[in-house]
């Protein structure tokens, strides 16, 4: 086998890539050079997972990479009809983000329950003002998205004594189907969006769904920004249809400084950081190197994305 | 049995006290009238647990209440030598605060791990700045105080995957003795103070102990303010001996607006609210009524405080 060409779409350096020296010809691309270099690559590593360049640059026909790996859980940023219909295998970073994101959701849920944003604001004003807060044990959560991230979130919330229902694309043991969603939303204290972005999930959290939630309900999005109709969420919070929300992902990232979302009442905005714990880039790099070993040995790859569905199918 | 006199030291109304109508003669006192009314009372209910009036007003000899109940976990605010040496039984609100305080500690630990105070500050500045945060699973906690509150904290932190050691006054199964404290502090990522305030624990978190913690360690106090030498903590944070801290209890409450503590870097200050979830006053009221039934029937009381030690002994 000739030395394969590994094309890396990167914005920041990838740790430990040097281990492939002699085993792959490593080339780098950015958004301006990707289209030109893509046809000559055997493997594309989408290290800069914030880029949407792959969709634009993917060759309609002719030579193209046989394998694309993205260092992200979602694949919505690179998927296009030509890639979906090609024989190219797509893999993702399934597994790396599960526990960190679950902890991040627990942090947001507890911060909202204990009214921590108000405490920090009052501290800034040097004001001691006792308030009663919410006990989370015994409350109810509905987690939308039954992949490894959604399941890790459900495990963590259950460990805090929260009765938690998981909703996925298809009903199975321990997972509700979409037909149960509205009923579960209507009685949830916490609604967590952790689904992949697909044609089915885009805009699923809209005025109708916020309107059916309890006035005391709080909403968290750690999936993808466009799962939520952001204007509808802003209205739901302003009119107090629901009590609070936290968005770690936004439709347009980074969120523009002049966006009205920054100042919506009872909304916490964080910069798409829920999965990114110290050492995460090392973990992503190690995961790619492991997959590369399988690929080079002609073995089946783990984490293969169902390109039509837009995620790795499984339990 | 003649109708007993129940004297209530209150600042706010006690829910459901009306249930005792006809079974007790209910009188009320505030800090100015307590000394005068105390000798005529059979039972004293310290509903205003922020008051230190009992210590001053307790009769040296002569008639005094046979039973004192405080609607708090700590008894440091009412204990004095005369009360400790008397035959008066003292009970506390053991049990009501365990789960709420454990959740509050989890909220603080996760908020510090996920750098939520910075996120909220940046949101106020309309600034999107991605940062890496800390994974709590696999970190180590040391919880000082092995009563029901400390044990609930340990259970909750363990449920988040944190390796947690409990330190109590005496070593027993699952609890380290004081001789292990410094060794455990030196390797902890999270140090949680949840001990009662006694002669042994006053000022136990001082410059020496902050100095032996890891530079990455974070400290949380949900016990009593004077467990901590606050000036030493301020120095430890300012000089970055430790990475962060959260105080829900302070030596002087409410904390004065001109206290320098409000602005110590990486310090979260909250107004003694960790145990006070919605409905807590109802729970405290119901707990007292249940104890009153036992007392009126001449049965042994639950939650009896060892007045010399200053807490309810037991597992």
From TrEMBL, chains A, B:
Q: State the InterPro entries in the record.
A: D-isomer_2_OHA_DH_cat_dom (IPR006139), D-isomer_DH_CS (IPR029753), D-isomer_DH_NAD-bd (IPR006140), NAD(P)-bd_dom_sf (IPR036291)
Q: Which GO terms describe its molecular function?
A: NAD binding; oxidoreductase activity, acting on the CH-OH group of donors, NAD or NADP as acceptor
Query: What Pfam families does this protein's entry cite?
Result: 2-Hacid_dh, 2-Hacid_dh_C
Q: Which PROSITE patterns match?
A: D_2_HYDROXYACID_DH_3
CDD domains per the UniProt record, alphabetical? 2-Hacid_dh_1
- In what residue span(s) does the D-isomer specific 2-hydroxyacid dehydrogenase catalytic domain sit? 29-305
Q: Which residues form the D-isomer specific 2-hydroxyacid dehydrogenase NAD-binding domain?
A: 107-274
Q: Which UniProt keywords apply?
A: NAD, Oxidoreductase
Q: Which family does it belong to?
A: Belongs to the D-isomer specific 2-hydroxyacid dehydrogenase family.
- The protein in question is named Hydroxyacid dehydrogenase
Per the UniProt record, the source organism is Streptomyces pactum
Name the lineage. Answer: Bacteria, Bacillati, Actinomycetota, Actinomycetes, Kitasatosporales
């Amino acid at each position: 086998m000739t030395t394969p060409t590994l094309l890396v779409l990167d914005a920041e350096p990838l740790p430990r890539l040097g281990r492939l020296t002699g085993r792959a010809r490593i080339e780098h691309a950015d958004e301006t050079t990707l289209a030109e270099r893509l046809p000559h690559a055997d493997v594309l590593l989408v290290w800069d997972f914030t880029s949407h360049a792959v969709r634009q640059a993917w060759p309609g026909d002719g030579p193209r990479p046989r394998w694309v790996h993205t260092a992200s859980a979602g694949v919505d940023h690179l998927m296009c009809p030509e890639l979906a219909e090609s024989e190219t295998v797509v893999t993702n970073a399934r597994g790396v983000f599960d526990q960190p994101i679950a902890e991040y959701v627990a942090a947001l849920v507890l911060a909202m329950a204990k009214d921590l944003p108000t405490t920090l604001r009052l501290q800034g004003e040097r004001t001691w003002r006792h308030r009663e807060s919410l006990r989370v044990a015994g409350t109810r959560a509905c987690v939308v998205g039954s992949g490894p991230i959604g399941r890790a979130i459900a495990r963590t919330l259950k460990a805090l004594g929260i009765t938690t229902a998981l909703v996925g694309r298809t009903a199975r043991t321990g997972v509700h189907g979409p037909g149960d969603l509205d009923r579960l939303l209507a009685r949830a204290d916490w609604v967590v969006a952790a689904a992949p972005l697909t044609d089915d999930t885009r805009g699923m959290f809209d005025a109708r769904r916020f309107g059916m939630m309890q006035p005391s309900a709080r909403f968290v999005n750690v999936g993808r920004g466009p799962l939520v109709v952001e204007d509808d969420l802003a209205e739901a919070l302003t009119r107090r249809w629901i009590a609070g929300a936290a968005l770690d992902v936004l439709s347009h990232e980074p969120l523009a400084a002049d966006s009205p979302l920054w100042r919506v009442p009872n909304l916490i905005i964080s910069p798409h950081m829920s999965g990114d714990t110290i050492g995460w880039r090392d973990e992503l790099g190690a995961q790619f190197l492991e997959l590369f070993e399988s690929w080079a040995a002609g073995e089946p790859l783990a984490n293969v994305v169902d390109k039509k569905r837009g995620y790795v199918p499984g339990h």
